[in-house]
Amino acid sequence: MTALGMGEALLIGALVLSIGVLIALLRLFLGPTSPDRVVAFDTMNTLVVGIMIGLAAFYEQVVLIDIAIVYALLSWVATLFIAKYIENTKEKEG
Fold first, then answer.
1. Nearest to 81 by CA among 43, 46, 38
2. What is the pLDDT of residues 6-46, one digit of tens each?
3. How far apart are CA 85 and CA 87, in angstroms?
4. What is the per-residue pLDDT across 58-87, written as a single tens digit (0 to 9) for each?
5. Distance CA 55, CA 36 (A)
6. Which of 64, 67, 78, 90 has the fewest CB neighbours in a 10 Å radius?
7. Which among 66, 42, 37 is positioned nearest to 53, based on CA atoms?
8. Is the CB of residue 48 less than 8 Å from the CB of residue 60?
9. DSSP string, the chain
10. What global pTM score does this model have?
């Protein structure tokens, strides 16, 4: 039995993170409350950033890391806006 090379380990890691994205997607659709869905959305985005970083290392493309950083920043801003929207709607309801 041979040890895994760095490339195979990165691809296996990306596959595991992809399974995590599918699980978070399930929580996004089935979440009973809006905060559950926001957490699932944020988790998915974090896992996607991890996949991007892993693929950047596998393909040795630095530009993918830059894209992952921008994606993470936009994801963070989107999560803040969604959380603020949920907070405002809860205040109006009671």
1. 38
2. 889 999 999 999 999 999 999 999 989 888 999 999 999 99
3. 5
4. 999 999 999 999 999 999 999 999 989 988
5. 29
6. 90
7. 66
8. no
9. -PPPPHHHHHHHHHHHHHHHHHHHHHHHHH-SSHHHHHHHHHHHHHHHHHHHHHHHHHHT-HHHHHHHHHHHHHHHHHHHHHHHHHHHHHHHH-
10. 0.86
What are 80's two structure tokens? 């803040």
Tokens of 53: 């970083």
Residue found by looking up tokens 């929580």 in the block: 27
Joined together, the tokens standing for residue 79 give 């999560």
Q: At what angle do helices 62-93 and 34-59 cross, to 10 degrees?
A: 180
Q: Of the candidates 92, 93, 91, 85, which has an alpha carbon nearest to the alpha carbon of residue 41?
A: 85
